[in-house]
Write a structure and sequence with these properties.
- It comes from Muricoccus roseus.
- By secondary structure, the protein is mainly α.
- It contains 13 helices and three strands.
- The protein has helices at about 10-20, 25-35, 55-60, 85-95, 100-105, 125-135, 135-150, 155-160, 160-170, 180-190, 210-220, 235-250, 260-265; strands spanning about 50, 105-110, 115.
- Helix 1 (about 10-20) packs parallel to helix 7.
C-alpha cells in the first residue's frame, strides 16, 4: 500500500476554495487547525493513517476480538494506537482478515477522514477512496471538500460562522478546546485582518487554549495583576490561580473557572 506522497499545491487550494465558494485563506485555516500542518503523508511516502480497532470490531461483528485483540476490540482504547508508521502493520494485519472493513476503519490523510465516509467524499467504494488518498495531498483535500459539501457545512464556511462550523464538524464539545476561536485567529492571521473580539461563552477552565484565554489573561493584567501573566493563550496553573485570586477579591465563587458571572466581572 505504498503511496506516491505528492504534496499540496497552490492549485489544489484554489480548486478547493472554488468548490466551497470561499477564499483560499478559509481553506488553509481549516487545514491548519484540523491537522496542525502535519501533512498527509509519512516520510516513507505512505498516507498518514490511524487504525481504529473498535470500528474494525464493529464492522466485523466482533469476529476477531478474541483472536486479534490488538486490532479488533471494544470499546475504544487509546492504548491500542501505535502511531506514525506503526499504524500500517495494524492496518495490514486487519486487511488480511477483512480488507474492506479494515480500509473503512482507518482515518486517512490530511484531514484524517475515515474510510467509511468514502461515499460522502465522492468515491463509489473504499478502494477508490484509498487509491486517491495514496496519490497526493491534493486528492486528500478533494475528499475533505467533498465531505464538507456532503455534510452541508460549506455555507457555514462561506459565512465564516466558526462556532457553528466547529459545533457541526467537531461535536458539541468543541468549545472545550476553543476550536472556533482557533479558527477565527488563524483566519485573521492568514487573511491579514484583525481578529474579531469574540464574546466569552460557556466556560473557560484549566487546560484550554486559544484567543479567549489570551483575552482573559490581558483582562487580568489590565486589572493590575502582579506579576503580570504571560499572554500565551494557555490556561495553566498560573492563570487559574490568577482567576481564583480575582474571584476571591470580588466575592465570587472561587473555583478558578471563568463562567458567565466571572466573565462579566472581568468585562469580557
Amino acid at each position: 500500500m505504498a503511496g506516491q506522497g505528492r504534496g499540496l499545491t497552490p492549485a489544489d487550494r484554489a480548486r478547493a476554495a472554488m468548490a466551497l465558494g470561499v477564499d483560499v485563506p478559509t481553506v488553509q485555516t481549516v487545514l491548519t487547525v484540523e491537522t496542525g500542518n502535519a501533512g498527509g503523508f509519512l516520510a516513507d511516502g505512505r498516507p498518514r493513517i490511524l487504525f481504529e480497532a473498535h470500528l474494525f470490531s464493529r464492522a466485523t461483528k466482533r469476529r476477531w476480538d478474541a483472536s486479534h485483540p490488538r486490532i479488533s476490540a471494544q470499546p475504544w482504547d487509546r492504548r491500542l494506537y501505535a502511531g506514525g508508521t506503526g499504524e500500517w502493520p495494524r492496518l495490514e494485519q486487519a486487511a488480511s482478515l477483512d480488507r474492506a472493513a479494515a480500509l473503512s476503519s482507518a482515518s486517512w490523510g490530511l484531514a484524517q477522514i475515515l474510510g467509511s465516509n468514502h461515499v460522502a467524499c465522492g468515491h463509489e467504494d473504499v478502494e477508490s477512496f484509498v487509491a486517491a488518498m495514496r496519490e497526493s495531498e491534493g486528492r486528500q483535500l478533494d475528499a475533505f471538500v467533498g465531505f464538507i459539501i456532503h455534510e452541508g457545512l460549506a455555507p457555514l464556511l462561506r459565512a465564516r460562522a466558526w462556532a457553528a462550523f466547529a459545533r457541526r464538524y467537531n461535536g458539541p464539545s468543541y468549545a472545550q478546546n476553543a476550536y472556533d476561536q482557533k479558527l477565527a485567529a488563524v483566519y485573521a492571521d492568514l487573511a491579514g485582518t484583525p481578529a474579531p473580539a469574540l464574546p466569552i461563552v460557556g466556560m473557560l477552565r484549566i487546560g484550554m487554549e486559544g484567543e479567549a484565554v489570551r483575552r482573559l489573561q490581558r483582562a487580568l493584567n489590565g486589572l493590575g495583576r502582579r506579576p503580570p501573566l504571560v499572554v500565551d493563550g494557555d490556561f495553566g496553573g498560573v492563570t487559574q490561580l490568577a482567576v481564583q485570586q480575582f474571584q476571591a477579591a470580588r466575592g465570587l465563587q472561587v473555583d478558578g473557572v471563568v463562567g458567565p458571572v466571572t466573565a462579566r466581572a472581568l468585562g469580557l
